[in-house]
Amino acid sequence: MIYLDYQATTPLAPEAFDAMVPWLRDKFANPHSAHRLGREAAAAVEVAREQVAALMPGGGRVIFTSGATEALNIAIRGAALRMRARDARRVRVVTVETEHAAGRDTVQALAGDGFEPVLLPVGADGLLDPETVAAEVDERTALLSVMLVNNEIGVIQPVEALAGISHRSGALFLCDAVQGFGRIDLPPSAGLIAVSGHKIHGPKGVGAMWLRDGLDLPPPIHGGGQEEGLRSGTLSPALCVGMGTAAQLMAERREADATHIETLWTRARVLLGDWTLNGSAEARYHGNLNLRRVGLDAARLMSECRDVAFSLGSACASGSGRPSHVLRALGLSDREARTSIRLGFGRYTNGEEVEAAAESINRAAAAQL
């Protein structure tokens, strides 16, 4: 099986697996216990925290979570409540039509708490127009939340410029950096950043939220007060260590990974030259290739290409039967959205796999058309 679904999850790095094993098997102590074994586990968690923090903007602090979904929920809800408590006018929470459901749905759910969700449109290339953002982000805005790299179409938003717009209005800026962490520069002006372990060749079940120094949020759950009171519950040293090791590898291998991915992207674009690219070709992470072909039934194509693991869109929405809200936001019809596939590749993909996958996909598509 050829794996081309890196946006859904990435293969676990062997180094991360090896680093985790002792904390799964022998060093099983609770990292919040006061005895020596507990302190050893706590020390391992702190090393992992530093490894993740090394990829973040300077200063700030890293809070471990169960994943990016939890990090986004804590950040969006906490930031909205904090800002409204300081200024009752700040009830607008602004995000983008093409955001991942973890952010988009959380923003929309705030309507039940008296907030005003605002979903910004994108152009046919999937990018935000800064002037449109500036017109919507004002003194009533509590938070602007934008993905760095879109999970479905791979476009890179101008997040630093957007953070500047947010700051000028006095609002907070949250960056969902899940797909870009360790690959694309993070916005140094962000107030909050959410990331995930399993999108950087780390384990599933762990993520992190970065908070700028001086920014305090109300806790969404209560308990033992772990993770500075924001995320009560016993941490898994194994998961934290795995994510920390993966983050360190992302830093060490960033240039080599980028060169490798660029080679794969260039080859894939040639081999799949009859397909139309969804989203910007320039402002884009090249490990994501979202394509469509007129007249194609993409769901049927997937069932016929059983030797290739790829996607029709977000893994979180798979099986819903609904066309992608991201592709619809680009102006595609339901039919056009259903002719689209997403191919994702990265560190452990080789050129031969890309060639074999393209051959399989093209052959199955030709049989339909």
Question: What would you say this structure looks like, in words?
Answer:
The protein has 12 helices and 12 strands. The chain has 2 domains: 2-9 and 254-368, Aspartate Aminotransferase, domain 1 (Alpha-Beta Complex), CATH 3.90.1150; 14-251, Type I PLP-dependent aspartate aminotransferase-like (Major domain) (Aspartate Aminotransferase, domain 2, 3-Layer(aba) Sandwich). The protein starts with a strand and ends with a helix. The strands form 3 sheets. Strands 2-8-7-6-5-3-4 form a 7-stranded mixed beta sheet, sandwiched between helices. Strand 5 (141-147), helix 6 (159-168) and strand 6 form a beta-alpha-beta unit. Helix 1 runs antiparallel to helix 7 (237-252). With 369 residues, the chain is of the alpha/beta class. The radius of gyration is 21 Å and the shape is globular. The model has no long low-confidence stretch (mean pLDDT 96).
Could you outline the blueprint of secondary structure elements for this entry?
Blueprint: E1 2-3, H1 14-25, H2 36-53, E2 61-65, H3 68-86, E3 92-96, H4 101-109, E4 116-120, H5 130-136, E5 141-147, H6 159-168, E6 172-176, E7 192-196, E8 207-211, H7 237-252, H8 254-271, E9 276-277, E10 288-292, H9 298-304, E11 308-309, H10 325-329, H11 334-337, E12 340-344, H12 351-368
Parallel strand pairs: 1-11, 3-4, 3-5, 5-6, 6-7
Antiparallel strand pairs: 2-8, 7-8, 9-10, 10-12
Helix pairs in contact: 1-7, 2-7, 3-4, 8-12
